[in-house]
Structures are given as C-alpha cells and as structure tokens.
Amino acid sequence: MLLMNDSRYRWLILVPRRTAISEIHHLPTEDQQCLYTEITKVAEFLEEEFHPTKINIGAIGNIVPQLHVHIVSRKVNDPAWPDTVWGHSPQVGYRNAEASKIINKIIKNFTK
Q: Are 46 and 71 contacting, i.e. CB atoms less than 8 angstroms apart?
C-alpha cells in the first residue's frame, strides 16, 4: 500500500505483489478475491477516518503498467470536484508531520 503524495486528497494505492500482471482479470481467481477484499478494507478505512463524499476506485495504469489500484477519498470541496483527480493540477505534497500522522493511522489499522 502506498500513500499518494498529494495532501489535497486522501489517496491510497494498492500494488499486488505479482510480477508481469497489468490487469485484474489476469490474476488467478483467488488473488482477484483477495484484491477485492483489500480494496473494500481500504475504502472502509478512508470512509471511517476521513468522511468523504465519495470514494473513487480505479485501476488505470496507462503510465505505470504494473497492476495497481487507486482508492481516492473525495470531497465536494476538493480542488478537482466533480472531475477526476488525474491531470487536474500539480500535486501538493504532504508536510512530513501530516504524512506521518496518516501513515501511523494506516499502520494501526492494517497491522492488527
């Protein structure tokens, strides 16, 4: 799991530990089910922690071919609303303390 370095959105990226896979449907069925379960857990975490208006989930991968899934917590007052976050505007990186706070919440939630 990766935290996207854009402080305007709570945006996590899941990267399955499978090489040479670019599409979800290329995963074995068991791995697909595991990925969907993990996506659900991340979406629930974002919902509980950050109270978004909407959760966007996408496996875009046009630039990075390795399979990865974006789970983006959106709010009606975010800079890109209601459009997509991709290509909207330059990223605004986290300050170290803010990133650490979110990472600690992630660790607490996903290492039980």
A: yes
pLDDT digits (tens, 9 = 90+) for 42-61: 999 999 999 999 999 999 88
Task: Specify the pTM.
Answer: 0.93
Token duo for residue 94: 């986290």
Q: Distance (Å, rounded) from C-alpha 32 to C-alpha 91?
A: 30
| Inter-residue contact 11 to 39 (CB < 8 Å) | no
Domains assigned to the chain = 2-86 (3.30.428.10)
Question: What φ, ψ does residue 36 adopt, rounded to 5°?
Answer: -65, -35
DSSP 13: E
* Both structure tokens of 81: 């609303």
Residue 112 pLDDT > 90: no
Candidates 32, 5, 40; CA nearest to 16 is 32
DSSP 48-107: HHH--SEEEEE---SSS-S--EEEEEE-TTSTTTTS-STTSS---PPPHHHHHHHHHHHH
